[in-house]
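Anyone able to model this chain together with magnesium ion?
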Amino acid sequence: MERTFAIIKPDAVKKGYAGRVLARIEAAGFTVCTLRMIRMSKREAEGFYYVHRERPFFAGLTDFMSSGPCIVLCLEAPDAIKKWRDLMGATDPAKASDGTLRKEFGASIDNNATHGSDAPDTAAFELGYFFRGLELS
Ligand code: ATP
Ligand code: MG
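re: yes, here you go
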């Protein structure tokens, strides 16, 4: 078993897609270990996306992530990190395959509906950034 960190981003929550995304998560066979609705501050979003701090889209990305409520989740499944990235699809919804969440629920590269950790070390950092150990036990 493996755990990964996921976000239903502010655009998807605002459009009323959270329930449908959760249904897809469950139908795909993930166990939702825990989840919470939060509204990130600008500073919290900057901390979360710290690896992207030098990128030209950093300011827009962190404005967007702090623009409204989102849902943070811990998902568990065999090979969960890759499995969740596959279900999300490509970063740019215009390039995402049919049947992926970003194709169905994303509008653009900066309003792309979901987030997923990309490796075991980032999953560990991101889960620890939002959840206490007790919530993940
Ligand atoms: P995420 O980390 O959100 O799951 P990702 O791993 O597919 O997405 P990253 O390269 O980590 O993609 O980029 C983080 C986020 O920054 C993307 O989800 C996207 O919203 C935004 N982003 C990435 N590249 C661009 C770009 N060229 N222009 C605008 N926004 C971008
Ligand atoms: Mg990423």
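The helical segments are 10-14, 18-27, 42-48, 58-65, 80-88, 101-105, 120-130.
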